[in-house]
User: Fold these one by one.
Assistant:
Number 1:
Amino acid sequence: MRLIREEVYKICSRRIVKVSFGVVLAGIVLIFMVIGPWEERCSIGSGESRLDYSGFDAIARDKELAAEFEGVLTDDVVSRMAQTCFFQEYAANGIVTNCNYINTFFTRNGLTDGIFNGPEPVKATRTLPLGSTAMGSLTGEPVYFTYVRGWQVLKELFSVGALLMGVFVIIALSSVFSEEYSLKTISVLLTTAHGKTRDILAKLAAGVVLCVGVFGICTSLMVLLCGCVYGFQGLGCFAGMLEGSWMLSREWMVSVSYISIGAFFVRYFLLALSGLLLLAVFMLFASAVSEQNFTALILGLVFFLLPVLLWILYEMNFMRMSPKVSLFFKSLICCSPIYSCFDVIEQVTTKSMLLFRGGESAAIAIPCLWVMVWRYRNYQG
């Protein structure tokens, strides 16, 4: 444990690591404000009698409105929602002019006869019976309504926050081995009693501890920001309420519409953490085979960002691929660390994709670990 603590301290004591972590935390707060409170709008009524709110005032008003209808969703409740909060109206450019949490909820969840996602939105004229909608007909049990706007913001915030965490892991771990090479301290370390055994295990453990610690701190910050501003209620509601997406599982997709919001985020967090751990292993490998920190940094960024380029190439050429090649190529990309940061839970949690993900992770991690150990133990400076 002493060696691990020393290695973690050595990584965290570097100025660039301290500054980078501060930037990540500040970036999370700034992004939260941009996509959350600063973006919030709440309009009640229509025409000249309409009352408009923005920012934290809009959040408070939306929470008051949602509290009036909290409980099991029924046809009568949806009808009263429409009477109280009005159907959404659209400007010539398709922008909603009287948006609030309630009418956004029943519009995006398909509880009206309006069209909001077409090239020309159509204002609704009536609500639809729950039994005739995807939400009501596919759940098989009552839908509980409450204010879940905070978890909608968290879902969007976490995808960006996870990317920031990935970049930080690359910066922080790029020097674990390469700094020993550049400072010529590797020769001294290898002559100690446990230099070729415990020292390398301590560096590996320190990388994992740092990755998990950063993930825990940043994720906790994001949850607290969203919970303290919007409220922690609604974790037991259906996850389909986050995006108004109500789909059944298929051969190539596991539906998350009918699990709880809490279970959805547990899956999302575990998926992102697994991607960051794989990235951490690769960064330790990159640092072990690089003489300079900058080289390891470039290798890490290429490994992290390359799947984005591959996805662009895939989108351009998948029509020419056979179904099996297309599926393999898509699976290879979606199981990469960077795509673990995004909300791709439906695509990567099928049994076949979980097996593929495990195989891909092992195919990357095992050679990286073997080369890392061999390179460190046989270093000739």
Number 2:
Amino acid sequence: MFPSFYLIDSEEKLQEVIDAAREDNHNVPLMPNYYCMKDGEICGCFTFWPGNRGVCHIAIWAHSKKMSARDSLIALAIIENFCRMSGYDYIYMPCSETSPYWSYMDKFGFQQMTSPQPYFLKKI
């Protein structure tokens, strides 16, 4: 089954997302807006921060065991389309060097930006 996203609409749902990330030895991004479900389980979330000048800021947690590489690509495509439909031209997203996505960011179409924490920019 494909991953799908839902609005985090309660403190209880936010706590479920936090608990799922902790079970995966991860933290959730600051103030996540949406969570990802696959096979009836929470397997990720993302934060969408509206920006200006056509740029939105996205932060993502994807479960290290419940999300395959294919699932992650599908989820990223969904997030990109969400941003595009919201009127944005660019996604600005952090990615640490320890992330399994680090070596693929350029293949995903992102350009690394200079910052204290590595950020990537993608025209969508």
Number 3:
Amino acid sequence: MMYSSKRNIIRTMLCCVIVSLLFATLTGCTARFMSVKEGDFDVTLHPELKGAEYNMNENSSIRRVAVNIHKIENQKTKLSKVWTGAAVVCDWDAHCGSRTDYSEKLEPGRADISYVFKSWPVSFSLEWLEKSQIRFISYGFGLDPAPYGKVSVGLNGRWGEIGMAAYLGFDYSNTNYTYEGISASTPFIQSWDEPTHDNSSYNGYQFHLRGGFGGYASVFFGPIALTYSPSVQSPWLWTGELGGDPAGYSDLIPPDEYELTFEFPIYFSHYFGVTWTYREKMQFSAGLTVVNGIQLKERLYFGSGSIAYLF
């Protein structure tokens, strides 16, 4: 019985290996690269990174649920010094062996790209705030409108607080761009299709990650807190592929993934805010966010307000 059980396990493992090899052979592989020529990419304004904004009691914890209100904005700024890199398909170093007679290349160049900053009218967040004698930590999540999580650590005392904060979240943004693309694909590993070189466009929504980190400092005047929070933001974090419409793709390969030849620029944010804490039960905040960057050609301004309940 024991030997029979071992034989069954070995047979199952062999079947799994064979099925995996067959799947890899039938689905084939592809090499596609994109050089964006001109385009607009939506950017959802990031959540505010800050601390408790009042002097918490020592060795205490509290929850904070907030409703954030923003003026509906659509502010567009062009990006400077965005360069696309070179790429090649069906070269000796890119899947196609010695078939260099079918090589297609992308030359490096400049991309004419703009960020379109958008702020949603209402967003929500829930945080857990904890303080020991002076050390402070908070963590939570929000909807703005896609979900995100954030955390902050710092020092919280009688006269103020200071710390660091970060967030990571999803986004679903509209994109509209023209591009030059090259691709080579095959339904079978042994037989590569002739590579293609096309100029096309794409207009649609795409999922991606966004994130940021920075610091915060608040000065307390009784129940009033004055806050400043500088941060670095990556609106298209770790985005290595974008949607496209390659010509002559295989039916077995989805036509919606091109590898990028450039990186989305970061930008800087400066938040200035004032918060009134009422009996450690309610918080009323108003603030101004200033967005700029080395590769942003304009400085943008966004106003916001929030109402929070502490419990």
